[in-house]
Amino acid sequence: MTEILRVEKLSMRFGSLEVLRQIDLSVREGESIAIIGPSGSGKSTLLRCLNRLTVPTGGEVIFEGRPFTAATDINAMRTRMGMVFQHFNLFPHMTALGNVIEAPVHVRKVPREAAIANGRRLLAAVGLEAKADAFPAQLSGGQKQRVAIARCLAMEPRLLLLDEVTSALDPELVGEVLAVIRDLARQGMTMLIVTHEMGFARDVADRVVFMDGGVIVEEGPPAQIFGNPRNERLRQFLGAVLDREPLRGPAPAAT
Fold first, then answer.
1. pTM for the model
2. Max Cα separation, the chain?
3. In contact, 87 and 147? CB cutoff 8 Å
4. Contact 216, 26 (CB under 8 A)
5. Distance CA 86, CA 2 (A)
6. Percent of the chain residues past pLDDT 70, beyond the cut
7. Cβ distance 207 to 30 under 8 Å?
8. Which of 115, 74, 72, 84 is nearest to 97 (CA)?
9. What are the tens digits of pLDDT across the range 21-37?
10. What are the backbone dihedrals phi and psi of residue 15, each rounded to the nearest 5 degrees, phi first?
11. Burial per residue of 174-191, b for 16 or more beta-carbon CB atoms within 10 angstroms, e otherwise
12. Pairing of strands 32-36, 17-28
């Protein structure tokens, strides 16, 4: 598979606090990578550094063969590297469909009728065809997050960054969002997924990355990470997490 993203010696410091330390990571096209680890380990900061919401203090990010430099058109790059956040960030005065078509129409200059047709297709794909005319205040948390995913997909990104997209949801709504991400993985969408859902990471990811203290401690296929972890810190983490929340099977299909 073609390498779509390469991270070399990426570092991030806030004052005296070193949040990321010499991160090396490669992502191949069509690969789904789950990033797990304790709170404060640098997972979300890593994603934010990748699309320059946070500017790293050292190292290099190379996306689609091009390193980020001072001359990089960040807005153009972000149309190719989409990000879905923990909190949905929908425009409250726009319908679900309006949120999905806003960027294609105004950023990519897609003709409005074409954007509407594609927006309805994407809402149907995330199980929300009937909610196209609903405003965010009329949607559940899980529905809002699915609209946020459809909005990101409307820009046709080559890489999707998902930052703890279920952590703000009530437990009963988590499954419907994970089902959408599961479908994207089956379709070959390239994704970096920061998640606390261990069962989901085991079932969906091609590769799992465990971070702690701003470094990648261990990475490998899910069978290795969850079935035969090599690092003692990873074993401790999984022991604590899985004692509290056993690995579950596939999430129910979206409705």
1. 0.90
2. 55
3. no
4. no
5. 29
6. 95
7. no
8. 115
9. 999 999 999 999 999 99
10. 60, -125
11. bbbbbbbbbbbbeeebbb
12. unpaired
